[in-house]
Amino acid sequence: MTELLNNAELNQLEAISFTLQRQDDASKAIQKVVNSMIATKNEVVGIKNEMMDMKGEIKADIKELRDSIALNDEEIKDIQSAVGTVAWRLTKEYFGERNVSDDLFMAKLGHLRTGVYYHLKKTFETGRYTRLKRIDFKKVMNKLTSFGLSDLEDYQTRLTPRQKEIAALNDDDVIGLR
């Protein structure tokens, strides 16, 4: 009977050994899967970081592009119209209640229109008003809305020699005007 127990005990030990071996194999397989998952996660995090960097670069590129785009034709026409309106208002303000000839009025209108364009180019740092940046369009229009004679330089508001000549030819009342 001891021999049988020993065989039974031996079978149990072999079964335990076999089970432990299987558990060890399963543990190694699970460890490989976990390591693979960790590596995949690290790759995904790396890709995410690269994508975030690219997103920042793309946003910067888009901003740079948007900031450098010039006005379109419709916006140019809107500015031309607004400048014409402002020049007309400034000319009427300049002469006030004086009754001046159309020749003098139109000469001063052109002079003040040039002054308004000059002021826009100087304020927005461009050589031509048509090269104003699209991003500044609303600022330009707001500036024109509040534009007054005081925004112009003295030489832009005085009567030019040609305007004085026109006034003299038409007997315009320009006494007191600079």
Secondary structure layout:
Elements: H1 2-68, H2 73-95, H3 102-123, H4 137-145, H5 154-157, H6 161-169
Helix pairs in contact: 2-3, 2-4, 3-6
Offer a quick outline of the entry.
This protein is 75% helix and 0% strand.
Description:
- It is built from 6 helices and no strands.
- Helices cover 75% and strands 0% of the residues.
- Helix 2 crosses helix 3 (102-123), helix 2 (73-95) runs parallel beside helix 4 and helix 3 (102-123) packs antiparallel against helix 6 (161-169).
- The chain is an all-alpha fold and 178 residues long.
- It folds into 2 domains: 1-68; 70-169, no CATH class.
- It has helices at 2-68, 73-95, 102-123, 137-145, 154-157, 161-169.
- The protein is rod-shaped and about 145 Å long.
- The mean pLDDT is 89.
Helices and strands, in order, run as: HHHHHH
Average of the residue pLDDT scores: 89
Q: Classify the beta-strand content into a percent band.
A: under 5%
Percent of residues in helices comes to: over 70%
Q: How large is the count of helical segments?
A: 6
**Helix/strand structural class:** mainly alpha
Oligomeric state: single chain
Q: Major sheet: size, sense and barrel closure?
A: none
Please state the overall shape, judged from the principal axes of the Cα atoms.
rod-shaped
What is the CA-based Rg, rounded?
A: 42 Å
CA(first)-CA(last) distance: 136 Å
Number of strands: 0
Low-confidence stretches: none
Overall structural domain count: 2
